[in-house]
Design a protein that fits this description.
Layout (H helix, E strand, L loop, with lengths): L1 H10 L8 H13 L1 H22 L4 E9 L6 E4 L1 H16 L10 E4 L5 E13 L1 H68 L5 H35 L29 H21 L5 E13 L8 E10 L7 H67 L5 H36 L7
Antiparallel strand pairs: 1-4, 2-3, 4-5, 5-6
Helix pairs in contact: 1-8, 2-5, 3-5, 5-6, 5-7, 5-9, 7-8, 8-9
């Protein structure tokens, strides 16, 4: 860690990168990304589901109205005549009158005919552990989706940074080839002039022509590479593919992001949240053994033939208790399944920790190698420039042949390209390490 910090601090002499433009692009990418918008919709949906689960604790009030007509079907026979006619007959004899009439046996329909019932029906759970644990699970699922969003955001930030560095790399490659083209064209002009004056043979002219053609082809390839890099970067930002990209001249590599901090990785938080959800699923399954208590109340009117009077009004209230005594060990086996799932998640947490540590260690080593490679390539570039200057002077004085000049110029181009590649490879390696360490502040 100390060695890597030293390398990074040493690298600050070469990098001076203020990421103001890049930070703005990252913010734009996070705001415009369609996948992030979709995940936010899912989070909002989960929040509404949580509110729905919370509403289950509240009473439910419903207006209920029924009207029935009936004929036929089952009846209740009431033997009023058989019971009262003998008594009435005796009373008529005693009173010597017909004051007590003869009654018929009655047959009443079970289904009420021409009957209405209008009421306000209220129910409310008083004790229900399923509702309690369901609410907890809903809340944890919402948190889980937020963590999944953060994971995607970190991946997007990494991809935006890498795409930006590759675009800068391609732009610098174009500049290098343009400078090289200017040099070889000047060589071409000088060689043609020397050939006209019989100072050199045709071979040097032909070789200079070939170098111009080669550099022009390389330049065209570099431009196409840059166009592709620009298009991909703008794609990540969800904007027009040919939109201009602002480039900062200063680069500053923050050395404080070196320390290992994988405990903050969202992948571990995600698994931890999944384990907590599984624990509540366990409690939810156990709650099937607990009693459920609820209350209800009806307030309304009911009568035949749409009559409404004092006797039509009524209220009806009570408590309902449900206790599952036996279910064929169904819940027992469900609990076994949940317990095995918990063991699986614990194993996954241990495995992911090792994977994340490995990822961070590899990204650290890659960054160290990239920085050391840049240091080496930068020194070779400076040496190649000095060597090219010496050979160019000797060539103009006639003390060096063209093949030596060409070799010196090719060394300049190649070392500049290598330094450019290793420079931005260092930034790419840093972006990879930043992702492995979850160091980027998503809220800035």
């Amino acid at each position: 860690m100390k060695k890597l910090s030293t390398v990074v601090l040493f690298c600050l002499g070469f990098f001076g990168y203020s990421q103001s433009y890049l930070d703005r692009y990252i913010k734009t990418g996070l705001e415009n990304n369609e996948v992030i918008k979709q995940k936010n919709f899912d989070i909002n949906k989960s929040l509404y589901a949580l509110k729905e689960a919370n509403s289950l604790f509240s009473p439910t009030v419903a207006f209920v109205a029924n009207y029935t007509i009936a004929d036929g079907g089952r009846t209740i026979d009431i033997p009023i005549g058989d019971m009262l006619n003998p008594v009435y007959s005796t009373l008529n004899q005693i009173t010597n009158s017909n004051a007590f009439p003869i009654l018929e046996n009655q047959s009443v329909l079970i289904n009420p005919n021409n009957f209405y019932d209008v009421k306000i029906h209220t129910t409310m759970p008083l004790l229900n552990y399923e509702i309690i644990y369901n609410k907890k699970i809903r809340a944890q699922q919402t948190t889980l989706q937020k963590i999944e969003l953060e994971i995607y955001q970190r991946e997007l930030v990494k991809e935006i940074k890498i795409a930006y560095y590759k675009y800068l790399q391609s732009v610098e490659g174009i500049r290098i080839y343009e400078n090289a083209l200017a040099i070889v064209k000047e060589n071409q002009r000088v060689n043609k002039s020397l050939f006209k004056n019989d100072k050199i043979n045709r071979t040097a002219v032909l070789r200079s022509d070939n170098e111009v053609t080669k550099i022009e082809a390389n330049l065209e390839t570099a431009k196409n590479t840059s166009k592709n890099a620009k298009a991909y970067f703008n794609f990540l930002l969800n904007q027009k593919l040919d939109s201009d990209i602002e480039i900062d001249d200063n680069m500053e590599l923050p050395a404080e992001l070196i320390a290992e901090n994988i405990i903050n990785r969202e992948e571990l938080k995600q698994l931890g949240q999944a384990k907590e959800i599984n624990e509540n699923v366990y409690q939810l399954t156990r709650s099937n053994w607990f009693p459920k208590l609820s209350g209800f109340a009806d307030l309304g009117i009911q009568d035949f033939d749409f009559k409404v009077d004092k006797s039509s009004r009524y209220y009806f209230a009570g408590l309902s208790l449900e206790w599952n005594i036996f279910s064929g060990n169904k819940n027992k086996y469900k609990l076994k399944q949940v317990d095995e799932e918990s063991k699986k998640i614990s194993s996954q947490i241990d495995n992911v920790k090792q994977q994340l540590l490995l990822q961070f260690e590899v990204s650290q080593n890659n960054l160290r190698s990239a920085l050391e490679q840049y240091e080496s390539d930068n020194k070779q570039k400076e040496t190649a420039k000095k060597y090219n200057g010496d050979v160019t002077r000797l060539y103009k004085e006639g003390m060096a042949i063209y093949i030596e000049l060409l070799d010196a110029q090719n060394q300049v181009v190649n070392t500049e390209l290598n330094a450019n590649i290793s420079l931005y490879n260092s930034w790419i390696a840093f972006a990879e390490m930043e992702r492995a360490n979850a160091s980027f502040n998503l809220n800035k």
